[in-house]
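USER: I would love a firmer grasp of how sequence relates to backbone shape in proteins. This is the protein in question:
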Amino acid sequence: MAGTKDNAIVAVIGDLTNEQAAQMTKEIMKAKRKYAPNGRGTIACGKKSDVGGLLQSGKTKQLERK
C-alpha cells in the first residue's frame, strides 16, 4: 500500500565532540517534530564504548508526542 508509515531510522555516528553530539541531537529532534509529529522515538548520546548499552538500556531521552 503506497504511503504507509512503516519505516524507521537507526543511526550510530562516532568521533564527535560533546558539543557536536548535542547539536546533532537537537537537529534530529527538530526533524522528528517536522516529519513525524505523532511518532515515537528514542535518542541517546554517550561514549563509543557504550554504544551497545545505549541502544538497549534506559540512558535515553524519549521523543514523545506532545
Q: What stands out?
A: Residues 18-35 form the longest helix (18 residues). The chain has a mean pLDDT of 82. Helices lie at 18-35, 51-56.
